[in-house]
Amino acid sequence: MSKPSIAIVTGAARGIGAGVAKRLSSDGFAVAVVDLDEAASAGTIAAIAEAGGTAVAIGADVSNPDQVAAAFDRVVAELGAPSVLVNNAGIIRDNMLFKLGVDDWDAVMAVHLRGAFLMTKAAQKYMVEAKYGRIINLSSTSALGNRGQANYAAAKAGIQGFTKTLAIELGPFGITANAIAPGFIATEMTQATAERIGIPFDEHKVNAAAVIPVRRVGAPADIAHAASYFASEGAGFVSGQVIYVAGGPKD
Q1: Of 126, 132, 152, 244, which is the active-site residue?
Q2: In the chain, which end has fewer C-beta atoms inside a 10 angstrom radius, N or C?
Q3: Is pTM beyond 0.85 here?
Q4: What distance in Å separates the CA atoms of residue 86 and residue 89, rounded to the nearest whole number?
């Protein structure tokens, strides 16, 4: 790989983030596995190391400017300047609007939107200097609206607008920005959703698969494939796009 090959993936201790981190490692990137709890990333780090890759675990709250700055200091010191940033960190605080508290609204906005903003602002400095970069933001099909997720849907829709603006502003510096909007992906987060609505997770997956055109739910590897493409040198003429990885078309 002729271009710098350092990737940062947030929320990479488990689920989609872990899948993306492992895939980027297999693509030749040294990966900074960023998560709120550094110790929780041990499994991802071990899997990457076992496969012969290089990774470091970094604990940081992506919504905290000081912690983000400290995280970047560590990435640069231990791996080098980042050329790829994957903003995947996210939380859910689902509830119907009339039950949704201000704290739960603010928490979701802080992690998804403020976190993506702070991480991207820190990363672009290095990418602009290198005249090369790949920013990949995780949106969701919930951006199109989803019952019980007013906060999450708004945040994920915001990610799409943020991504398109990044593409316009950073494009002249050789930096692309794209978003991936997953559909139903079997992770701890979707398991939490099943618990919220009172359905066994296996049943929840069967019900979801029945209305997905490819007749299965997604896996973190499905998202990792898309991230691998967006992170590649070959995707240099693709920017400002939102790809729905959902097993079928979305409006």
Answers
A1: 152
A2: C
A3: yes
A4: 9
pLDDT in tens, the chain (251 residues): 455 699 999 999 999 999 999 999 999 999 999 999 999 999 999 999 999 999 999 999 999 999 999 999 999 999 999 999 999 999 999 999 999 999 999 999 999 999 999 999 999 999 999 999 999 999 999 999 999 999 999 999 999 999 999 999 999 999 999 999 999 999 988 888 888 788 999 999 999 999 999 999 999 999 999 999 999 999 999 999 999 999 999 97
Q: DSSP letters along 142-202, please?
A: GGG--TTBHHHHHHHHHHHHHHHHHHHHHGGGTEEEEEEEE-SB-SHHHHHHHHHHT--HH
Residue environment code for 64-78, b if the CB has 16+ CB neighbours within 10 A, otherwise e = beebbeebbebbeee
Helix ranges (H only) for 12-64 are: 15-26, 42-50
Secondary structure letter of residue 37 according to DSSP: S
For the beta sheet containing 175-182, the strands, ordered from the edge strand earlier in sequence to the opposite edge, are 55-59, 30-35, 6-10, 84-87, 133-138, 175-182, 242-245
152 is catalytic: yes
Question: What whole-number distance in Å separates Cα of residue 3 and Cα of residue 130?
Answer: 9
Which CATH superfamily includes the segment(s) 6-183+219-245? NAD(P)-binding Rossmann-like Domain (3.40.50.720)
For the chain, the structural domain boundaries read 6-183+219-245, 186-217
